[in-house]
Amino acid sequence: MNLISQPSIIAYLAPEIPALSATFVYEEMFGLQDLGYSILPITVHNPTNPAYGQDQLISRTFCLYDQAPFIIVFTGVFRLPIFGVGAFKALRLLLSDLSRCGLHRLVTWKLAYQFIAAVKLASLLKSKNCSHLHVHFAHVPSQIAMYASAMSGVPFTIMAHANDIFERGLLLRKKAERAVKLVTISEFNRAYLERIGVPKDKLAVVRCGVSFPIVPPDRPFEKKAHYRLGTLGRLVEKKGIDVLIRSIAELQNRPYEIELSIAGDGPLREELEALARVLNVAQCIKFEGSMTHGAVAKWMRGLDAVVLACKKDKNGDMDGIPVVLMEAMSQSVPVISTRISGIPELIIHELTGLLAKPDDCQDLAFQIDRLLDSAELRERLVIEAAEHVKSEFGRNVNLKRLLTYFPKVMLLPR
């Protein structure tokens, strides 16, 4: 491994580290560590559902909201003057933002609290001699980060995903202007951000890179009497699991049997179980509950296809590019999803997978039937899918892209 004489310390900030539902954040950190960089993990909150087997990461992660609010406010106000000119610069930004948001809104007063929390973050960045701050999600963590950057002088970048821009996009243009770069996971997101006024020169696309090894098929593709489909994600509206259950009901008269395995948990579980009973398909649907990251690969290898029926929820939130699709593609498992957000950039219809209209159980059933009816189609799709994931969504490819936006970080010769 090549080393640098003065290691660059890169701080990573996210809502929850290490969160079970955001493994891509710490996988990205581990990737940079593998390249020889020192990483300082910082979380806004301690995770509600921490990732399994990450005790060491938990022990070295700093938490910003680990004290009672009055203590955070008291210590923040007390420490703010030590940043001198940086404190005045950050305060000027805050006052401008408060005026822009309107003093009558609750979110405005939350912004003031995040400014105080930024004092703790700025202190960490200075005391640990960090060269750069990289922030996952463009909502609360980025609000804290932009003030901490002004206080400390440490530059920052933002990685935007989905909910953070579609549903919680407070001050997005200002965040982008203050950041070195606002990178996002898809061309779809980049175009959306440009449409709402984020400067074009502040935007870039960096994928959520994955490091899954490409695994060739372990059994021949053939027509069968019984197929096992799987879907994985939180049981929430935007995952479209209700649509998938309805599509399974549409396929009950086909000359094969389908078993659907639903991995994940969430607030809609009881409602979805009831829907399966009403549609008379409960006998072929299994709710697996949450799975460890390690168990997912084994579960996936027993599937004939992974199906994600992603859709837009009533608040406008939708998935970005689900990592589970990338994992399935690298495992040589055929994939089906929907034409929404950045998914068509990963699943190129009829080349790397199949796409259905979002929120359309009949079209989804049609695409599932097409896939299961043709062993030749399945075999062709998985070959192209594995190559596409490796070349466009590979971890090292995207880490190199990301590092070009870290101006004070010394790049390692490779």
Automatic annotation (TrEMBL):
Its EC number is 2.4.1.301. InterPro entries: Glyco_trans_1, Glyco_trans_4-like_N, Glycosyltransferase_grp1. GO terms for molecular function: glycosyltransferase activity. It is an enzyme of class 2 (transferase). Transmembrane segments: none annotated. Keywords: Glycosyltransferase, Transferase. The keyword Metal-binding does not apply. Pfam families: Glyco_transf_4, Glycos_transf_1. Residues 228-386 form the Glycosyl transferase family domain. The keyword Cell inner membrane does not apply. Residues 109-210 form the Glycosyltransferase subfamily 4-like N-terminal domain. This is Alpha-D-kanosaminyltransferase. It comes from mine drainage metagenome.
